[in-house]
Amino acid sequence: MRALIHLAWPTFVAQIAVMLNGMIDTVMAGHLSSTDLAAIGIGAAVYGAIFVSLTGILIALTPHVAHLYGAGKREEIGEEVRQAAWLALALGALIILLMAWPDPLLAIARLTPPVEVKVRDYLAALAWSVPPALTLRLFNGLSSGIGRPRPIMLLNLLGLALKIPANLVFMYGHLGLPALGATGCGVASSLIAWLLAALAWLWLARLGEYRDYALLARFSPPRWSALRDLVRLGLPIGATFMMDVTAFTFMALFIARFGAVASGAHQIAANLAALLFMLPTSIGHAAGVLSGQALGSGDPAAARRAAQRGFLLGLGCGATTALALALAREPAAAFYTADPEVRQLAARLLLLVAIYHLADALQGVAVNVLRGYKKAGVPMVIYAFALWGVGLGGGIVVGLNGAPGLSPGPVGFWLAAIAGLGLAGLLVTLYCRRVIRLTVAPQAAAP
Hints:
Layout: H1 2-30, H2 34-55, H3 61-70, H4 74-100, H5 103-109, H6 113-126, H7 130-145, H8 150-171, H9 182-206, H10 208-211, H11 224-255, H12 260-296, H13 300-327, H14 329-336, H15 340-372, H16 377-401, H17 410-445
Helix pairs in contact: 1-2, 1-8, 1-12, 2-4, 2-6, 2-11, 2-12, 3-4, 3-7, 3-12, 4-7, 5-11, 6-9, 7-9, 8-9, 11-12, 11-16, 12-13, 12-15, 13-15, 13-17, 14-15, 15-17, 16-17
């Protein structure tokens, strides 16, 4: 448990810093106008569907590094990162292309012309953040795999410290610059990403804890065997992220049909749901890293202990934060916006978010532990059925058409999302238990 907390808390702080960037954008846009709030909410959903889904493939780097680290194969870690960089280069080109042409996703939302213009401008500005964001993703994968999450935490905290001043300059117009609104938020995010990526490269080149892996010692051309191994694990991880993120993205786009008030309230609820998720997913991430390192060293019993502690701590924290949100939902909604209509609807949705978070905590720990075991195929199938079929499919039926005692609107979408995520959490946890048991059983049976 001590080792778990030692890895989890810097990861949690780093994740919170990232999520607070999104909260800052939402709050500052909410106090600017409902149009800017809706534009950032929809634009962030589109960006998430594209960027998070595709770069989820790179998360395979962390369990690969963790296994090599546990096995004591330090000399192979640098080569693994260099090969992942080639994969990141290809993914970056695809992401920028898709962000330049978001028409298929925007068509679902049926946006008003003023909102659509702001969304397109926001995405165009945010596209400049893709190259440095991919660099940071590689740095994150390496640091997490070797059990060094603090550099990531420090970089993310620096980005958070710069976010409000940068938004003030570009969103509201200061230092002689024009007020760009939602677009200025994208400009600020891109500039901060480039600064953090430069610092990450400096960290890799200068600090002894990274010099040992000789990351920058030589040039490595693409090796298809190494890339194939990364893609074999990363593709189902990326697909799982895609299902999770696109379920939320389509949810946001369909809710946008009900107008700026519904869209803004949903953005507040979605932002807080994602913020709360950072605690159990950080704990699950730490449990997955410890499990991967233990498996790499040939100790499945230690991997099982790390997983068990992860579930215990993650579910305990999830229940506590869910209760806190349920009790403080009205002040939380008021913090985001001064619009009384948006605030009233958001407070109603936040009660559903508290219930949703319980299921989110369960699946967040389970799926991260499974990645430590290099198991991603079965969770992908589970998420496809639960999140797309039950969650999104049910949301489209109930949210758009209503149900007995329930009017069409965002509440129906959130009720369906709770059902889908609850099913996903149950199934992926049962599969996780089976994987752990089968991994430990051969060692227990050995003479």
